[in-house]
Amino acid sequence: xxxxxxCASCIHFRAVKAEKGMKYYCSRxxxxxxxxxxxxxxxxxxxxxxxxxxxxxxx
Length: 59
Fold this sequence. Notes:
The protein is an alpha+beta fold. It is built from 1 helix and 3 strands, in the order E-E-E-H. It has a 3-stranded antiparallel beta sheet, with no helix packed on it.
């Protein structure tokens, strides 16, 4: 799971283009984050979950 577990692969991750670059935030926790951060509330996106299943990994 470590290989896939990061904010960018979570269903709650949002990327918004701002005037001075990109802003990343968690729609569940309602605060700014970074694509590489990890939290216990992680829920993988469908594509990530399918890839994990294919590789024999659990969520």
